Amino acid sequence: MNFKELIPVYRKQPSTSYKYKFTVFTPVYNCENSIKKVHDSLLKQTFKDFEWLVINDASSDKSHEVISKIVETSPLNINYVNNIENKHKMSCFIQSIKLAKGEFLLTFDGDDECYPNALEFFNNEYEEIPDELKPKVAAVTVLCEDQYGSRVGDLFPEDPFYCNTFEARIAGKIIGEKWGFTKTDVLRSIIVNPRMLNYGFVPESMIWDPVASNGFLTKCVNKILRIYHVGVEGSIMNTPMTARSAFGTVLKGLAVFDWFFDKYFFKSPIFFLKTIYITIRSTLYLEYPLKDYIKSIDSYFIKSIFILLWPFRKLMK
């Protein structure tokens, strides 16, 4: 196994002319009871320059029937895709990047709601970014609350807070659920090997982290715009994870080592040591030999730790 071939790379693609300002992307899995409230939230938006891209990931309930009825009567610009085979959220997200006709891509889950001014606020916050900084800013991110009105996740340390999201995350400056859009041009410049999705669940950070590793910034604002429903059964976010998630965990760890280790190890050694531990422990679920991992790691330091800990990995819990 050549893990390196499966790690996404950033290659700037030519800019595209878009039909809309936003593509609001909703991945759906068994959301027959909640998708209407997503539609209602979008109907109430004060900013109208958007499309709603809905990808139904082979739901086993009546999501397809419910969405089809919405499409028939809704005044919104809806692009509905009904996947016959379940692909999982990461695959649907990559699918959405290719299909998006909006300059900004905003994921809005099938059991969420948002405030009527959400898209207007996002647009205004981007327009207020200084012109000299705009090319470096790939995203705008805000806060969430749960269905009971309590904020989910911590406030950002400044308002606005411009940051490299990976650096801010390992420094504890971005904690908890957040919500935001990313420039579609930037996302389309992240080249994904389709084989990456053939081995089980892969975390979305495999897309977000290349954005950070290539120097893009995110504008973070202390404004609650999304209502994030906690404890909802059957959503695409709550699909049970099994040993199939091990491959994605390992691939994520190897990617983090190659993307960030040299620059950030001395800033946050505990983070990287924990990542090494989790990555090695996850290899227990895979059948690849040590040499496959070693040849995928750039750092000789991490190579050495892998070799030292490999005989003891069955003791890891």
Automatic annotation (TrEMBL):
Signal peptide: none annotated. Pfam families: Glycos_transf_2. SUPFAM superfamilies: Nucleotide-diphospho-sugar transferases (SSF53448). Residues 23-122 form the Glycosyltransferase 2-like domain. Transmembrane segments: none annotated. It comes from the Bacteria. This is Glycosyltransferase family 2 protein. It comes from Winogradskyella damuponensis.
